[in-house]
Amino acid sequence: MKIAKMMNSVFNWEDSYFGGYERVIYDHPSIYIPPSIEVSFDKNPGLTFYTATKLCNLFLLKCMKYNLYKTLLANSRIKDRFNWVGKKETVTVFDNKAIRQCAVHLSMCGDPLENMFGHYLKFLREITIEYVHPNEEDKKKSLGSTNPFSISEEMEKDFSRIKENTPFSWGRCDSVSGDLKDSAVFQNAEDKNIGEWCASAEETKLANGLVNLLDISFDPTEDRISNLKCGKMSPHKVAEIPAGNTHIYYRVEHDQNTKPFSVCILCDESGSMRSGLAVKQNHLVKVLFAAFSQIMPKSKIYVYGHSGPHYPVIRVYNDQYNPCFEELINSQLHQDYDENYDGPAIECVYERVRQQTSDNILFISISDGEPAGVDYGGKAAIEDLQRVIEKCKRDGFVTMGIGLLYHKVKDIYNYHTVISDTKHLVKNVSSLINRVVRTEFKS
Question: What does pTM read for this prediction?
Answer without folding.
Answer: 0.55
